[in-house]
């Protein structure tokens, strides 16, 4: 298969580094100086009437500029050529002051400014569902946050009143909802004060760095990937202040680091998936690169073997040069053909590796893709588990569909402080866990009222539920997802006994933010009819597998109405026939 390679035997995990994390900058990434314009390009830019200083063109290399000036560039490229989204980093502060002084309001802003460019500051205008309000998407590398950060998120969300709530996302990240321009700057800067940030989290930027929710505490990991994820995030965002050099990519890009055989971050659906392995010849612990995984409305691609071995100290440089390669060489025409896979396919895996290696000034090694002789079941991190550190445990709880309130943020932080080490971890299944809980604290911790809402030992269906945002807030949604997903799972749990966890994922449209292709049962918003009339419906996918040797779910049925009388019996029959569920016998 595309992901096959050499076969080596499993190895014992080495000890994780003793120092877990630091918010202090480890390295200065400096100010990026873009390549000087050639006279020919300068002439073309002038003739096109582009204001170079404010355009993305200022930040691109000359080859990138060539591509951004191609005759058939897409609309987003035109917008970025006209004025770059990086101005949003400064605009947001100015706007807050003007709005509070009554000198402007959101309706006065140009459509591209408010709906597109603001995304560089992590602000997503919810024009269709909640006009005038924004969702703010953060960066939470490796899904790790501290009590101080959680308490700040509680305070910020409370400030937003009834409109304020939050999400844990499918990239182990936080989003804040219900922000208006009068508060956006305060939260933007408030986040930075607690070591968080929202820059470069939307549009053509790198998404949240994912790793393992049990990094550093996992008895089975090859290495602790947290330090690498922080360094990568610092490189990408220039310590959360914004990095213009890497904010002019042709499209979004997802990077995930998997330190164990569980593949917690789903590297197979990341544009760049770094899979920890032991080099078959040297025995060194590093990463094999998998390239090009992604979902979209037009194409869903599983990553292919990038046949590149990275030593741990090459990871950040490799990712920086890969982003520069994508920025400089990626095409900017049809937006459906601009994800990294298209560039890798155009260049070929070998040439792509050589190009990135050339930019790093090294010859990159090959031949490290691992196929293990034995099977490895991806572990659930919910519940209570002993860590590799004796006497310490992690406690994982299920957050239904990832939806949270200000009080939840507060309780997450309080519990971390009272029973753990003052930190939490998020998962790509939109759940939460507390690491480093001493055994003596376990009993009292479980009695906390939060765990009545967010169960430590959830049912086999509710514990694996994932859902994208859906029509409540997302303008692209075909159907409502989160609330419907929660209501449906409750009924299924009440009516069925399911012998083991079944991962049901909901996604409101074919963009598949809720990743239906990786699910046991995936429900994707689509058209349907009920009594001859158009109604909200789903396409049903079945049979995705994750972890080692993943496979995508395939379409099972489509045009199924979401109406409970149709969908519930349909899901029950799939669960009974394919997953061994049984009707509960009434007591
Ligand atoms: Fe997504 C666009 C929400 C993970 C593929 N995604 C959107 C937007 C921004 C559309 C919009 O403007 O409304 C959604 C915002 C809705 C809102 O109000 O929250 C949105 N995506 C989400 C989140 C919040 C879903 C969730 O409930 O958890 C996830 C945020 C992750 C994060 O923290 O950054 C989210 N999106 C994903 C994933 C899953 C993943 O990364 O594993 C995917 C599929 C993987 C991939 O990207 O290849 C995904 N989102 C998309 C796409 C399709 C990309 C493409 O190449 O075509 C879009 C549309 C686009 O970019 O044009 C999109
Ligand atoms: Fe919105 Fe579609 Fe993504 Fe759901 S899958 S959040 S509906 S873009």
TrEMBL record:
Chemical reaction(s) catalysed: 6 oxidized [2Fe-2S]-[ferredoxin] + NH4(+) + 2 H2O = nitrite + 6 reduced [2Fe-2S]-[ferredoxin] + 8 H(+)
Record EC number: 1.7.7.1
Transmembrane segments: none
Residues covered by the Nitrite/sulphite reductase 4Fe-4S domain: 203-363, 464-562
Organism: Apatococcus fuscideae
A matching Pfam family: NIR_SIR
UniProt entry tagged with the keyword Nucleotide-binding: no
Low complexity composition-biased segments: 10-20
Pathway in which this enzyme or protein is active: Nitrogen metabolism; nitrate reduction (assimilation)
Gene3D superfamilies attached to this UniProt entry: 3.90.480.20, Sulfite Reductase Hemoprotein, domain 1 (3.30.413.10)
Domain Nitrite/Sulfite reductase ferredoxin-like, residue spans: 128-194, 385-449
Keywords of this entry: 4Fe-4S, Heme, Iron, Iron-sulfur, Metal-binding, Oxidoreductase
Protein name, per record: Ferredoxin--nitrite reductase, chloroplastic
Family from the record: Belongs to the nitrite and sulfite reductase 4Fe-4S domain family.
Keyword check for RNA-binding: no
Lineage: superkingdom: Eukaryota
EC category: oxidoreductase
GO molecular function: 4 iron, 4 sulfur cluster binding; ferredoxin-nitrite reductase activity; heme binding; metal ion binding
Cofactor(s) for this UniProt protein: siroheme
């Amino acid at each position: 298969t595309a992901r096959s390679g050499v076969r080596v035997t499993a190895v014992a995990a080495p000890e994780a580094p003793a120092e877990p994390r630091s918010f202090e900058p480890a390295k200065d990434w400096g100010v990026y100086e873009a390549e000087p314009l050639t006279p020919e390009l300068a002439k073309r830019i002038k003739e096109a009437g582009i204001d170079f200083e404010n355009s993305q063109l200022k930040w691109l290399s000359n080859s990138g500029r060539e591509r951004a000036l191609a005759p058939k560039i897409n609309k987003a490229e035109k917008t970025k050529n006209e004025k770059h989204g990086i101005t949003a980093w400064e605009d947001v502060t100015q706007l807050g002051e003007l709005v509070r002084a009554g000198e402007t309001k959101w309706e006065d802003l140009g459509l591209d400014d408010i709906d597109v460019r603001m995304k560089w500051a992590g602000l997503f205008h919810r024009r269709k569902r909640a006009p005038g309000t924004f969702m703010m998407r953060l960066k939470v590398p490796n899904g790790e946050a501290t009590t101080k950060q959680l308490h700040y998120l509680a305070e910020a969300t409370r400030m937003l009143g009834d409109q304020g709530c939050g999400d844990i996302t499918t990239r182990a990240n936080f989003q804040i909802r219900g922000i208006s321009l009068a508060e956006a700057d305060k939260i933007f800067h408030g986040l930075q004060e607690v070591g968080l940030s929202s820059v470069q989290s939307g549009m053509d930027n790198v998404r949240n760095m994912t790793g393992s929710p049990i990094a550093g505490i996992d008895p089975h990991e090859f290495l602790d990937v947290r330090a690498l994820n922080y360094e990568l995030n610092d490189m990408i965002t220039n310590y959360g202040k914004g990095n213009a050099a890497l904010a002019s990519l042709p499209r979004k890009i997802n990077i995930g680091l998997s330190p164990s055989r569980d593949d917690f971050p789903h590297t197979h659906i990341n544009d760049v998936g770094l899979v920890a392995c032991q080099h078959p010849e040297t025995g060194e612990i590093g990463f094999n690169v998998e390239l090009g995984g992604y979902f979209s409305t037009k194409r869903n691609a599983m990553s292919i073997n990038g046949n590149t071995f990275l030593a741990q100290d090459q990871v950040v440089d490799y990712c920086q040069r890969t982003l520069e390669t994508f920025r400089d060489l990626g095409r900017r025409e049809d937006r459906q053909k601009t994800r990294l896979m298209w560039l890798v396919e155009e260049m070929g895996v070998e040439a792509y590796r050589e190009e990135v290696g050339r930019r790093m000034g090294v010859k990159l090694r090959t031949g490290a893709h691992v196929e293990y002789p034995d099977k490895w079941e991806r572990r659930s991190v919910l519940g209570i588990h002993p860590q590799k550190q004796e006497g310490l445990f992690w406690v994982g709880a299920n957050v239904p569909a990832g939806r949270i309130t200000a009080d939840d943020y507060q309780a997450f932080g309080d519990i971390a402080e009272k029973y753990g080490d003052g930190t939490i971890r998020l998962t790509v299944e939109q759940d939460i866990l507390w690491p480093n809980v001493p055994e003596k604290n376990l009993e009292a911790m479980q009695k906390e009222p939060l765990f009545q809402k967010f169960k430590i030992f959830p049912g086999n269906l509710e514990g694996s539920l994932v859902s994208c945002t859906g029509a409540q807030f997302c303008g692209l949604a075909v159907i409502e997802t989160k609330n419907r997903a929660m209501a449906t799972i409750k009924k299924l749990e009440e009516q069925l006994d399911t012998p083991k966890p079944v991962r049901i994922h909901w996604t409101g449209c074919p963009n598949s933010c809720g990743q239906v292709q990786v699910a046991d049962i995936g429900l994707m918003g689509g058209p349907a009819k009920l009594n001859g009339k158009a109604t909200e419906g789903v396409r049903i996918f079945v049979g995705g597998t994750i972890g080692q040797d993943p496979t995508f779910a395939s379409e099972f049925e489509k045009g199924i109405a979401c109406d409970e009388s149709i969908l519930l019996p349909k899901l029950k029959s799939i669960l009974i026939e394919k997953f061994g569920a049984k009707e509960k016998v009434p007591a």
